[in-house]
Amino acid sequence: MANLLVTGGAGFIGGNFVHYWADRHPDDTITVLDSLTYAGNRSTIESVEQAELVVGDIRDTELVEKLLRERGIASLVHFAAESHVDRSITGPDAFIDTNILGTNSLLEAARAVWLDEGSGRAHRFHHISTDEVYGSLGPEDPAFSETHQYQPNSPYSASKASSDHLVRAYHHTFGLEVTTTNCSNNYGPFQYPEKLIPLFLLNALHGRNLPIYGDGMNVRDWLHVEDHCRGIEVCLDRGQPGETYNIGGGEELPNMTVIDRICSEVDRALEEIDGLSARYPDAPAARGRATSELKTFIADRKGHDRRYAIDETKARDELGYKPRHDFESGLKATLRWYLENEAWWRALLDRA
């Protein structure tokens, strides 16, 4: 039996991790610390019996110390972050506050309880980061490895790069037992509808434009969120303190390919699922037209990275990590989840 503290556990990836961990470690207790910003949703984890939600800020060092100390927590899994690049361009301050100052606050709390108080308790601080810290790749460049130079190009990726460096420093300076995983583009259930897949799905269902940045040929490595959770699990189990591991999905695709597949799946769903056209009468497919007619090209995003790709050799060789979801089946399952869980995403949109 273990006690975990999961920051940002009511968000997209953190919430999926809470479900994943509870299913596979039913005797463990999970404390979720989440400030329930726009992207956090208590309903995401309300069905997980062994998870307790504490509404609070990761910058509240005293609160985190209290949770670690009083609950005997030896593993902290840090998801909490501002993560939407567009928001970081229009309002970078929140990214500095949460991603840098918040991570430092957690590290200080962990150092105080796990090291300074001299308990001698084995511990692990696991930090979730992103491939965006590595910058942008050219068409023929090799994929990002853990030794790739950091070259963040947005306020979001710069704030995550800073937090990565802080985590590394607390290991080398103070001896805190840390690991870091840098993941590629996640998709799956419970994702807030500002990211590409849920945004385009819901826009398609409501007959709204599908806004495509630039020429739509920016390339990303797509990772099903369950595979990401599996990667974190093996890192917690077998990862070496102080090490970084890249977690990818092995599905490098241009955005336009992803968008075309979303359009095709929405068309297919409205044709095959009884009553769906009546639920979403504004969808082109409900009127016998193609969802693809909603595609609209807009001015490219400032500083838009052209290509990301993950080399997961280290995680595969040292941890035994391997993604199990291919993009085709993973996308179909994701779209069906959103269709079957309208109450979840509609509540988010209603409060936005």
Radius of gyration: 20 Å
Q: How much β-strand is present in the residues?
A: 15-25%
- Share of residues in helices: 40-55%
**Mind describing the biggest β-sheet?**
7 strands, parallel
The neighbouring-strand order within the major sheet is 3-2-1-4-5-6-10
CATH topology name of the domain at 3-187 and 222-250 and 304-324, in short, is Rossmann fold
Low-confidence stretches: none
Mean pLDDT: 95
Q: State the order of secondary-structure elements, H for helix, E for strand.
A: EHEEHEHHEHEEHEEHEEHHEHHH
Number of strands: 12
CATH class division of the domain at 3-187 and 222-250 and 304-324: Alpha Beta
The CATH H-level homologous superfamily of the domain at 3-187 and 222-250 and 304-324: NAD(P)-binding Rossmann-like Domain
Number of helices: 12
Class derived from helix and strand content: alpha/beta
> What characteristic shape results from the CA principal axes?
globular
GO molecular function: dTDP-glucose 4,6-dehydratase activity
Cofactor: NAD(+)
EC number: 4.2.1.46
Enzyme class: lyase
Report a brief summary of the structure.
The protein has 352 residues and is an alpha/beta fold. It is 43% helix and 16% strand. The protein has helices at 12-24, 61-70, 85-90, 93-116, 155-174, 196-205, 225-238, 255-272, 276-279, 313-319, 327-340, 342-351, and strands at 3-7, 29-34, 51-55, 75-78, 124-130, 178-183, 185-187, 210-213, 219-224, 244-247, 252-254, 295-298.
